[in-house]
């Protein structure tokens, strides 16, 4: 998409919801916008182009009333500055890769975020770490949905690792205060390719990467697996057999 065409769309006088499924959009497209949209409330960018922190800052300056944001973000530079506090965004769905310190910086600047859905491809956080993020940076958070890739797991103590991790999500903060539950699927067969996925329940993403039943060992923190282990949002399935 050319900057000219994007500016034409941005100038639509009643533009409120914008869903872009375009794969040739520049990662600096927001800095090229020439006008401010006061009507845009929801923006979803569905492509694999990762956007740095500065794109979110540029976007907020061009859409100060934006309430919903869905995009792929790449926060490789933990020292990148984020000069604005984005007070309007209340709902965000992020595909995240990069440095955890940069992710903390992003959360620090989203103080009114109420609903967060995040797919973390590079790192995972324990229940204690998520709790601290919520207390320190996201005091208004009501709904947290995530999927985190866990690798590598130590060959000889895989189940002990998983139990220790899940126990950080079995605290009063998770179970009693918020009723947030998680599940972990992992390959119990020791080896160099051992990995797992940790995600909130019910499952909140269109893509589910499953581990074949014979190679999968699931554990969860919810009291009733039939009630919470729901996958009705899944549209695409990847199955790992080995």
TrEMBL record:
Domain of life: Eukaryota
Source organism per UniProt: Adineta steineri
InterPro entries: LRR_dom_sf
SUPFAM superfamilies listed in its UniProt record: RNI-like
Name used for this protein in its record: Uncharacterized protein
């Amino acid at each position: 998409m050319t900057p000219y065409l994007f500016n034409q769309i941005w100038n639509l006088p009643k533009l409120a919801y914008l869903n872009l499924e375009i794969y040739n959009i520049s990662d600096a497209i927001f800095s090229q916008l020439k006008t401010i949209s006061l009507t845009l409330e929801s923006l979803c960018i569905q492509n694999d182009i990762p956007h740095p922190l500065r794109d979110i800052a540029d976007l907020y300056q061009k859409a100060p009333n934006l309430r919903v944001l869905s995009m792929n973000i790449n926060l490789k530079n933990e020292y990148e500055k984020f000069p604005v506090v984005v007070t309007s965004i209340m709902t965000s769905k992020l595909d995240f890769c990069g440095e955890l310190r940069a992710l903390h910086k992003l959360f620090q600047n989203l103080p009114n975020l109420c609903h967060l859905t995040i797919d973390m491809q590079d790192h995972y956080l324990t229940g204690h770490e998520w709790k601290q993020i919520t207390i320190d940076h996201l005091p208004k958070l009501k709904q947290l949905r995530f999927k985190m890739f866990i690798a590598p797991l130590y060959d000889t103590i895989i189940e002990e690792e998983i139990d220790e991790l899940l126990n950080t999500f079995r605290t009063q903060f998770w179970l009693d205060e918020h009723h947030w539950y998680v599940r972990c699927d992992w390959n119990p067969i020791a080896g160099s390719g051992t990995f797992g996925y940790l995600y909130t329940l019910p499952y909140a993403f269109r893509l589910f990467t499953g581990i074949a039943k014979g190679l999968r060992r699931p554990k969860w923190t919810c009291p009733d697996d039939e009630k919470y282990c729901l996958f009705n949002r899944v549209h695409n399935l990847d199955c790992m057999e080995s």
